[in-house]
Write a structure and sequence with these properties.
The chain is an alpha/beta fold. The protein has 4 domains: 117 residues, 3-Layer(aba) Sandwich (Rossmann fold); 150 residues, P-loop containing nucleotide triphosphate hydrolases (Rossmann fold, 3-Layer(aba) Sandwich); 79 residues, Helicase, Ruva Protein, domain 3 (Orthogonal Bundle); 60 residues, Arc Repressor Mutant, subunit A. It is built from 19 helices and 20 strands. A 5-stranded parallel beta sheet has the order 2-1-3-6-7, with helices on both faces. A hairpin with a 2-residue loop joins strand 4 and strand 5. It is globular, with a radius of gyration of 26 Å. The N and C termini lie far apart (77 Å).
């Protein structure tokens, strides 16, 4: 039988919790202080511990220190609303999850039911750790550098919980891969993973995209549409570039996150949705709040567990590993074996990769297409080998004394040309939203006219 320790200083609350846990099929021991819990743990090995955050002789987080070497024990902290931030911080220390008082019985049952599944996930994560040591991989993510290992550790801690995750990183650092990893290592792994780029959807359509609409809700709504929240029900919804979401929609998103209910555009029926949110941005979210493009209350609702993704230039040793990884993928897809020339690898290692992993992947793909058997330096894009730098075809050039606006226009045109006119790819490399790029291009066209 699965065993549980319930730690609570109030006798009535302790007895009520112990009864609820017993009804879920656990063998239960109880304690009212940290010292008493220490004594119980000497002869009792629970798989889950429910502990009040504030105890007469210490804090519930001290229990984490008692069992931190034992990965088979899960901690569920119980806290008052005023201590919610402390409870969230406890997730970083290894807590499984937290409950607020008065305890919601249905949520407690859900957490207890998830304990066994979480133990299975931890075993799978251990296997992934072994894979990381031998192959430099963690799920779909590749890298052995210290910044990446720190990232893996954070994702490992937060994945089995229900906490919302907020990913911050430059364009091309792999935020969607990180979100997929969180989903793959969570209790929701067998349910849908749905992703949307908030900056790439028209402001007039994004509400319908997220929440769906009823037939006749607006001009062109010829049939009912299921929104992304409904599509992701039971699973994970990834909101990329969330700072680009219109402010009026942010209010509605906040309401859905707080209530777990939504209404389709043009509808009146409230529908329950069970979705875990992972969001991401390539800009400073606090600066976005100061600029008035992101609601502060929404930021704190999304940013329960913030995670920074390192840029490629800080991932020493990973560039060559990633280049070989992308080359192997291209070779497998094409059924043709090709290799790197040492000069090409030296150029790849020396380049700062402002577009990060995405830019590296695109460069390898291009070189693979151009090269015969060996990807030499001639097959790499000129900006990597130093052949183009700030000029394309002799037509566009940056020079000292030009205005920032002029330099910005040239940079945008160069990036569009390098991406063969692919605007979403250019926006990603430039580190701006697709909406911002379209606004700039429209302004340039107006100037020309």
């Amino acid at each position: 039988m699965t065993q549980a320790l319930v730690l609570e200083d109030d006798r009535n609350t302790l007895n009520a919790l112990a009864t609820l846990v017993e009804l879920e099929g656990f063998e239960v021991r109880t304690a009212q202080t940290v010292a008493e819990a220490r004594g119980v743990l000497e002869a009792f090995q629970p798989q889950v511990i429910l502990s009040d955050l504030m105890l007469p002789d210490g804090r519930g987080t001290e229990i984490l220190k008692l069992i931190q070497e034992d990965g088979s024990v899960e901690i569920i902290l119980i806290t008052g609303e005023a201590s919610l931030e402390t409870a969230v911080e406890a997730l970083r220390l290894g807590a499984y999850d937290y409950l607020t008082k008065p305890v919601d019985e249905a949520r407690l049952k859900t957490l207890l039911a998830g304990v066994k599944r979480t133990r299975e996930l931890k075993n799978e994560i251990s296997e992934l750790r072994g894979e990381l040591r031998s192959m430099g991989r963690f799920g779909k993510m590749v890298g052995t550098s210290k910044p990446m290992q720190r990232l893996y550790q954070l994702l490992e801690k937060v994945a089995p919980t229900e906490a919302t995750v907020f990913l911050v990183g430059e364009s091309g650092t792999g935020k969607e891969l990180a979100a997929q990893t969180v989903h793959a290592l969570s209790k929701r792994r067998n349910e849908p993973f749905v992703a949307v780029n908030c900056g790439a959807v028209s402001p007039t359509l994004i509400e319908s995209e997220l929440f769906g609409h009823e037939r006749g809700a607006f001009t062109g709504a010829d049939s009912q549409r299921t929104g992304l929240f409904e599509q992701a029900n039971g699973g994970t919804l990834f909101l990329d570039e969330v700072t680009e979401m219109p402010l009026e929609l942010q209010v509605k998103l906040l309401r859905v996150l707080e209530t777990g209910k939504l209404t389709r555009v043009g509808g009146s029926r409230l529908m329950d949705v069970d979705v875990r949110i992972v969001s991401a941005t390539n800009r400073d979210p606090f600066q976005a709040v100061e600029e008035g493009v992101l609601r502060e209350d929404l930021l704190y609702r999304l940013r329960v567990f913030p995670v920074d993704l390192p840029p490629l230039r800080e991932r020493h040793g990973d560039i060559e590993l990633l280049a070989e990884h992308f080359l192997a993928g291209q070779a497998k897809e094409a059924g043709i074996e090709k290799t790197f020339h040492p000069d090409a690898l030296r150029a790849i290692r020396a380049f700062p990769w402002p577009g990060n992993v995405r830019e590296l992947r695109n460069a390898v793909q291009r070189a693979f297409i151009i090269a015969d058997d060996v990807l030499d330096i001639e097959s790499l894009p000129q900006e990597i080998t130093g052949g183009a730098g700030h000029r394309v075809g002799g037509a566009l050039e940056l020079h000292a004394g030009m205005s920032i606006a002029e330099a910005e226009k040239i940079l945008i045109e160069l990036t569009l040309e390098a991406n063969d006119g692919d605007k979403p790819a250019a926006a990603e490399q430039l580190g701006i939203s697709l909406k911002t790029l379209y606004n700039r291009l429209r302004a340039y066209q107006d100037e020309a006219e």
